[in-house]
Amino acid sequence: MYINFWYPIAKSDEVITYEPHRTKVLGQQLIAFRDTQGAAHVLSDVCIHRGGALGKGWVRDDTIVCPYHGWRFGGDGLCKHIPTLDDDKVPARAKVDSYPVQEKYGIVFAFLGDLPEEERPPLHNIEEFGTDGWRANKIVVFEVKTFYERSIENGLDPSHNEFVHPAQGSPTMNRDFLKNPLEMQDGPWGSEFLVTFDNKVTDTRALSDPSQAVPLVTAGSGYVGPNQMITWIRFTEDNMFHQYFFEAPIDENNTRIFFVNMRTFMLDPENDNRLVNINLTVAKEDIDILEELDPVCTPANPSDEVLVPSDGAVISYRKFLKQWRDKGWRIDIDAMCASRRNKTYAIPCPSRRTSGNWVLDPVPLLPGGD
Ligand code: FES
Ligand SMILES: [Fe+2]
Fold it and tell me: Is 124 within 8 Å of 244 (Cβ atoms)?
């Protein structure tokens, strides 16, 4: 798990003005609430007075009220009011981390890290979102009992489909093609590939629509950062799915996935539910495999696996992960878990770069490279 990337926190309609939305990402409890101007805020959940859970409190006058002794924190993370003190006596240390927010596609995203704005990796832009000729399904959120890297690697793996996905017609890839390394196209924050599937047996089962049957399907996948995965499926020039998976590692064993499905055909809204159900059926086929992978995380030692050319995108993903680890952004999960009983951490927010005097230590990070 890495700090300094954008993570999905909640669906927009879960972030409201009178009650906090409590969630866990990167092993840390977070809260989100909306102020009366409509802006969403994402804060560390731990009250720095004596450890109250802000997410169990309530929102009043654009502040989150701790349920234990009523301290109030603004969207900027600063304590605005302590019931037992005059307001001008609120200690400077009384503040919690507050994270930059972007709200897009019906999702509230937070930048969980301390980089200044100009250095931040991007939140992936869905160019076709809201444009003519494309329709987005309602956001689908589902949780998987797996480490998120396993989930992303699964999405980057074209050779599992014929074995795992009868609901899609078990799409098979040309064997000669699979014997060669995937041709990855690298970008600054990730990589992608396109391949062709023989669709002879795919026929109509995936879409329950005989008119969509075509002999070849072009498809591909890519990733941006450690937790954003994209799949393109092109049946014809006009009939396409673009699928976006924004993944939030809840902790070292669980992942929450925010799924945006875009399509250029079957645009009638009455198709939405049917397509969501098909997508969830396919996702369930993946989940049944992912939840049984052993070990839960990818092995620390590469010789504990045997990788072949068709694993090229997985290898590419791990190379990028290594770069981000070398930057010193990878959370030291073992250190974080070892001290859980009497120590809590916060993901450092950008304000830590410009002001001191923070109560909670930042999450422990693995040392970076040279
Ligand atoms: S623990 Fe939050 S106000 Fe005391
Ligand atoms: Fe799959």
Answer: yes
